[in-house]
Amino acid sequence: MDLDLRKLRYFAAVAEHRHFGRAAEQLYIAQPVLSRQIRALEREVGCALLIRTTRSVQLTPAGEQLHEEARAVFATVDTAVRRVHEVDRGVERLVVGFAPGLQVSKAVRAFTATHPEVEIELLRLHWWEQDAPLRDGRAHVGYLRRPFDDTGLRAVPIGSEPKVACLPATHPLARRRAVTLADLDGEPVLEAHARRATSVEEKFELIAAGRGISIVPRSVARSYSRPDLVYRPVTDAAPVETCLVVAKDRRQRRVLEFVTVAAQELGVEAVRPAAVD
After folding, report:
1. Residues 232, 214: contact at Cβ < 8 Å?
2. DSSP-assigned letters across all residues of 143-188
3. What is the DSSP annotation of 188-202?
4. Residues 6+ apart with CB under 8 A from 46
5. CA distances (Å), origin 179, targets 164, 173, 207, 234, 237
6. Do 50 and 14 meet the contact criterion of CB atoms below 8 Å apart?
7. Residue 47: which region, alpha, beta or left (left: phi > 0; alpha: psi -120 to 50)?
8. Distances in Å between the alpha carbon of 119 and those of 72, 134, 136, 206, 250?
9. What is this structure's pTM?
10. What's the burial of 227, exposed, middle or buried (CB within 10 Å: 0-12/13-18/19+)?
């Protein structure tokens, strides 16, 4: 089945607004035309995407999934078009994604010193989908923490860091200097697979509001200090491995050169390009 990108954009507008009239205004098309296009899309995919009532529009489970998938599709298409234009203008660009709390500035400075002709763009990655931009083309290289889905990816281990418990300042365990996993047993833990907060800031806001706790890498805690939260070392938690990551099918010379430079700057042995191929 060939999915019509125009219909998919129409669907995404309806999904965002949950209203046909407002979506039609945004798209500069008549509402009946939009309704026909959405019904045509539902016939093409073979399932209902929307639940329509006289007052609202809701997404079916299939519609929720398509809405999520559409974001990645649009990102890939937009990135591809941008790269085509950059090649036409003779621009070399390298997009480096990084997980919250991880710092790539030292590697970027070192790479730029020897490759001043390459424009470096930084992309802050969501904590719940840090590997996705490496697959859909939004990022060339990622500085990530495990766990992540490494299907189709090549990871170069860089180091590790300890974990800390993020707690509301009023939590009984906040009075301790350190905690164990047994101390946290039974606590509601906010994890990526359980609830997708749109940012680390939202996640910590939920913790401060008493909605749960979280176990995070120490670098995240250092980057997001606030008075209504405390961070306590989890003495028996396994450390978090950090990695430089590229897609297995990405073999561009600049990407491999950046991985080598970044690995050297982060204090590990030089990584030959063949190790990433």
Report:
1. no
2. EEESS---TTEEEEEEEEE-EEEEEETTSGGGGSS-B-HHHHTTS-
3. -B--TTT---SSHHH
4. none
5. 9, 8, 17, 5, 10
6. yes
7. beta
8. 24, 18, 20, 37, 18
9. 0.62
10. exposed
What is the CB neighbour count within 10 angstroms for residue 220? 24
For residue 110, give the DSSP letter: H
pLDDT tens track, the chain, 277 positions:
567 888 999 999 999 888 898 889 998 999 999 999 999 999 988 999 999 877 778 899 998 889 888 887 887 787 777 767 666 666 678 899 998 888 889 999 999 999 998 889 899 887 777 888 888 788 999 999 998 888 889 998 888 899 999 999 999 999 999 999 999 998 888 865 444 555 778 888 889 988 889 998 998 888 888 899 999 999 999 999 999 999 887 777 888 899 889 888 875 443 333 333 3
- Token pair, residue 229, equals 């939260």
Integer angstrom CA distances of residue 246 from 39, 42, 102, 251: 39, 36, 17, 9
